[in-house]
Amino acid sequence: NSSLNALKNEEILVGTNPEEFANHIDSLLKDELKSSTLANKGYEFVINTYGWDKCNSILSELIEQTVSKKQ
Hints:
Number of helices: 3
Distance between the termini: 40 Å
Order of helices and strands: HHH
Strand content: under 5%
Helix content: over 70%
């Protein structure tokens, strides 16, 4: 998760061993609200961080910086 910067237990669940991983899955299967909330927040995180709009914005910025340096 340190490379993703997602909010632990809000946008992502991280299991550091098989038991933690299994416990996360079990908790999501038993709690529909938690599962739905995590799914929605995780989706929003991915769209806002890695979606086309965000990537295009970053790419446009890099292109503008490169063109500016060459002028």
